[in-house]
Design goal:
Helices cover 20% and strands 31% of the residues. The chain is an alpha+beta fold.
């Protein structure tokens, strides 16, 4: 266990004196009772938490990713190591790991019009209560809307739901126009604009607050035209203010034409998977999920898109 923690600390980019203090503390720690083996990601999270406590508020921030892990097969997935003690009432008796595999038609070609169809239906119904953007939470629904702005570059409406929830919807011609409304993710839209162009009526974002005005969730989904031969991609960003994303999913390397981890120009780690005409990238932290889905683009072209994305520090 101590050796694993030491390796985890060594994998975190910290000032050398801080990392040395962590390693020294681990070496001098008294032996305790035998414990169950921790999964690799759990070790890294534990080490990062220790690093934050020791280094203090003035140090460079440590970013922990909760991406899917690439493994060779089912035999490489560790057994669940955490059992619910009853403290977390909403969880079952055991938190199990999971794995996902592409469906039979995963890489089937899709056009941008097909991909953006659901957002364009929202545009078409703007000003009515026909489509209000799904449910708030399981068992809770949006009931009606009110137009805030209906004739500018950014269409805006407030959508009201049960139990006092309010969602402010944004429909911008260009997502750069509403970047300030979604500060949980940073995009270099100038650099992105040299690669692709926002597709018409294909960007939709929302900010959900509870009856006390507290932020619950923010999300934005935008589609881009990326070439003259049907190339396109979508950006899908979601931030959970009150909950966290889980991080126990595995994918099998042999299911894909390509499957690897890419560290972008801003230090974010993406899991890239490619199959037939489709290439995806995902980066997940405790509260933020970044997903890019592309068609008819190479993974090198997808990486250029990823280099335009970063997270705010602190």
């Amino acid at each position: 266990m101590e050796n694993k923690l030491k390796r985890a600390v060594e994998g975190i980019e910290l000032p050398e004196d801080a990392a040395a203090r962590i390693r020294a503390g681990l070496s001098s720690a008294p032996a305790g009772k035998p414990r169950r083996r921790l999964r690799g990601r759990t070790v890294i999270i534990a080490a990062a938490a220790a690093a934050l406590l020791i280094v203090g508020a003035g140090a460079a921030y440590v970013q922990v990713f909760r991406n899917s892990e690439i493994v060779g097969g089912v035999e490489d997935i560790p057994e669940p190591t955490f059992r619910n003690s009853g403290i977390l009432e909403d969880l079952g008796p055991e938190i199990a790991v999971s794995y996902s595999r592409p469906s039979a038609d995963f890489g089937t070609p899709r056009t941008l019009d097909e991909g953006a169809e659901s957002i364009r239906k929202l545009y078409a119904s703007f000003g009515t209560d026909e489509r209000l953007g799904g449910s708030i939470l399981p068992g809770m629904h949006w009931t009606h809307s009110e137009v805030v702005c209906g004739s500018e570059d950014v269409l805006v409406r407030d959508v009201y739901g049960e139990d006092g929830y309010v969602k402010r919807d944004y429909f911008p011609e260009d997502p750069a126009l509403v970047a300030g409304e979604f500060p949980f993710v940073c995009v270099d839209y100038d650099a992105l604009g040299r690669i692709a162009s926002p597709a018409p009526e294909s960007c939709y974002g929302g900010v959900i607050k509870d009856r006390r005005g507290r932020l619950c969730e923010s999300f934005i989904n935008c589609f881009y035209e990326a070439g003259t031969e049907g190339e396109w991609f979508s950006l899908d960003f979601t931030h959970l203010a009150e909950r966290e994303w889980s991080g126990s999913n595995y994918i099998f390397e042999g299911d894909w034409d390509e499957a690897y981890v890419y560290k972008n120009a801003n230090g974010l780690e993406f899991v890239i998977t490619a199959l037939d005409s489709r290439a995806d990238a995902e980066c997940t932290t405790a509260h933020t999920s970044i997903t890019i889905t592309s068609y008819f683009m190479s993974t090198a072209e997808l990486e250029a898109v990823l280099d335009c994305v970063s997270l705010p520090e602190g």
